[in-house]
Amino acid sequence: MSATEKRSQPQPYALVGGVSMRDLLASCAAAEAVSTPPRVPDPGTARAAAAERPQAA
Questions:
Q1: Where do runs of H (alpha helix) occur along the chain?
Q2: Are 13 and 20 spatial neighbours (Cβ–Cβ below 8 Å)?
Q3: Between 35 and 49, where is the model more confident?
Q4: Region entry Disordered: which residue ranges (predicted)?
């Protein structure tokens, strides 16, 4: 390579199919969060929260 030819600058992040690795990992984390069912509340916590709620009249 001659001194007049421009060298390509390294990418700040890897591209996989036109998508940055950061975006790919973020979308995977979001998909996992959405697809994971909610946890069953701890029975002790649920009873305490129910006791603190005012009763409907």
A1: 21-35, 43-52
A2: yes
A3: 35
A4: 32-57
Distance CA 21, CA 14 (A): 6
Reduce the DSSP state of residue 46 to 3 states and report it: helix
Q: Which two tokens stand for residue 46?
A: 């649920």
Q: Are 23 and 16 in contact (CB under 8 A)?
A: no
* DSSP 8-state code for residue 4: T
Nearest CA-CA partner of 14 in 26, 24, 28: 24
Tens-digit pLDDT profile for residues 15-43: 557 888 899 999 999 999 999 888 887 77
Residue 19, SS3 per DSSP: strand
Q: What is the pLDDT of residue 31?
A: 93
- The residue type of 43 is P
